Task: structure prediction
Amino acid sequence: ASPLWTSAMNDSLSFSNLIYSGGKIYSRAHRNLYCYNTTDGSLHWQTDIQQPSFKNSYSFFEGDKLILVKVENNKYTTVVLSTTTGSIIKTTTLMVPTQLTIPANAHRSCNYSNNTLYVTSAHNQDSVSIKAYDLLTASIKWEKYYAMYYFAYFDPVLTNKYLIFPINNSYPVGKSLMYFLDLNGKYLTSI
Result:
């Protein structure tokens, strides 16, 4: 079978995954974000997001917004763009505190919903933290610490009601517990 269309995409998509949402394909190369139409492969828009590509990056969609999160050591830079025009709506930089001597080892994962960035990271050598940041004010909404635990290396699952994440009680292998918090950080249960 022959393809419906082909398109010349940027050939230097370092650390970039193709992302599909709403009939569009998004890709990154260096400081640029590209949006292609899936109907014919044409370039819909291109934007300089003013952030170089980085291997620890995340993409989230909410309504007509694309939220890119770049993690470098314990610095989280979020760029919110319009999926319609590619224009940058807001850029926020957060420094997530850690007591580790090498901050690059702190980051575990993040998730996003409704202008809130949920960050899981190592707090120190033998404890983990979950923090929720309000991206409108660049301030912390809540934080939880779990002493003598280690994150199982999985992204937290975010639903419309819960933040769910696995942690281990020993390193490198141990009994994993699945923790359930509501979106305000209230502990609900663990299994």
